[in-house]
Specification:
Helix content is 32%, strand content 22%. It contains eight helices and 14 strands.
């Protein structure tokens, strides 16, 4: 990059930073947990229209996506789900095309008393912006939009088509990103500014979500021995799944990317609900679980192993052996991902990175999931 061009862009970034920060704070202030992303999508649509982008804002029809690879079951209300894409079309379409994507959905806040400040009242402290979703990944989304502003402010015009995509469901199914593919959006490269510490994801795990549905035998607690406690039975199944986790981590030692990591496969029982009364032996318990798989592993085969593990654990339980639990697929059914066949895009990104930060961009082997998997 020529030094004067680089400086013009950097100066434009600095000139627009106060506005970028204000927009980021407004974006973080929107409580866009699952199912409530609409106001965020409204805001993104308005920002894109103000800048002259061609805006495509549509409601997602799950039925259009069910047969596509990477689809994850949607078990919640999806009636308000939307994707927003802003397209820049150059006057001289001679360059490579690019997708810039961010997700606006955020995970739940957890207990409010554990926050120093309200999660959707963003504050700046010691040079950092705090709020739910500030890091993952609203600051990246707004930063990308203002980077495009800076290029224009510097008097430059990209010569390739650009799609700026704001998606939902990154945290639970991935169907937001999948909807852009179903809609026909494609490009030569895709950049997703997730909070990776300035590293480029070389490989990432896939993720499977499932729900254990355990049923017990309810009795009054005074005769608890004659019943079966669904909650303690669920813990028995969780123990079996931890054994599967250990087995899969053993297999990971032969993976060329993940072998250097001590524990790349993480099983997490993340939500547990059960019982109706403290003095009644609980008749039911549901446990929502997450487990990772590695690139190259079959989602279907992993599902079969999960079912086999749960069945084996149930057979080793006095009550469950005759009353087996159900397993319900409740979200992600996502392949692992490895970045490859990307020499041109990596070279362009590496050149820009070195120009600003100096040195080469480092690789990251990621034990979490991003929407990147849809664009490889």
């Amino acid at each position: 990059m020529e030094s004067d061009v680089k400086q013009r862009i950097l100066d434009a970034v600095d000139a627009g930073f106060d506005a970028q920060l204000a927009t980021t704070r407004d974006f973080v202030a929107i409580p866009s947990t699952r199912g409530a992303e609409g106001p965020c999508q409204d805001m993104i649509g308005d920002l894109l229209r103000q800048r002259g982008y061609e805006v495509d804002d549509w409601h997602i029809d799950v039925n259009d996506l069910r047969e596509l690879r990477g689809f994850g079951p949607v078990l919640h209300d999806f009636s308000k789900a939307r994707t927003v894409v802003g397209t820049y079309r150059p006057s001289n379409n001679s360059g490579k095309s690019l997708i810039l994507q961010g997700h606006c959905d955020v995970v739940p806040t957890g207990p409010l008393e554990m926050w120093e400040t309200p999660p959707f009242s963003p504050v700046i402290k010691d040079g950092k912006l705090y709020g739910r979703g500030a890091c993952d990944m609203k600051s990246g989304t707004i930063g990308t939009l203002y980077a495009l502003d800076a290029i224009k402010m510097a008097g430059l015009e990209p010569t390739g088509r650009i799609h700026f995509q704001s998606v939902i469901e990154e945290e639970s199914t991935g169907v937001g990103a999948l909807s852009t593919l179903q809609r026909g959006y494609r490009a030569d490269a895709c950049f997703i500014p997730e909070p990776t510490g300035g590293k480029m994801v070389r490989a990432q795990v896939g993720v499977i979500w499932f729900r254990l549905k355990v049923r017990g035998h309810p009795v009054h607690v005074f005769e608890a021995g004659s019943g079966s406690n669904a909650i303690t039975a669920a813990f028995h199944l969780i123990g079996g799944l931890h054994q599967l986790e250990a087995e899969w981590n053993g297999r990971a030692k032969s993976d060329r990317h993940f072998k250097a990591l001590t524990h790349p496969i993480n099983f997490n029982p993340g939500i547990i609900k059960g019982g109706d009364w403290a003095s009644s032996v609980p008749a039911w318990c549901d446990v929502d679980c997450r487990i990772a798989i590695l690139p190259g592993w079959s989602v279907a085969n992993a599902q079969a192993e999960i079912l086999s593990c749960v069945s084996a654990a149930a057979r080793d339980h006095r009550f469950l052996s005759n009353n087996p639990p159900d397993v319900e697929w409740s979200g992600f059914l996502s392949d692992g991902y490895e970045l490859k066949d990307s020499a041109d895009a990596e070279a362009a990104f590496g050149k820009a990175f070195a120009s600003v930060y100096g040195g080469a961009v480092e690789d990251l082997v990621f034990t979490a999931l991003t929407d990147t998997r849809f664009y490889g």
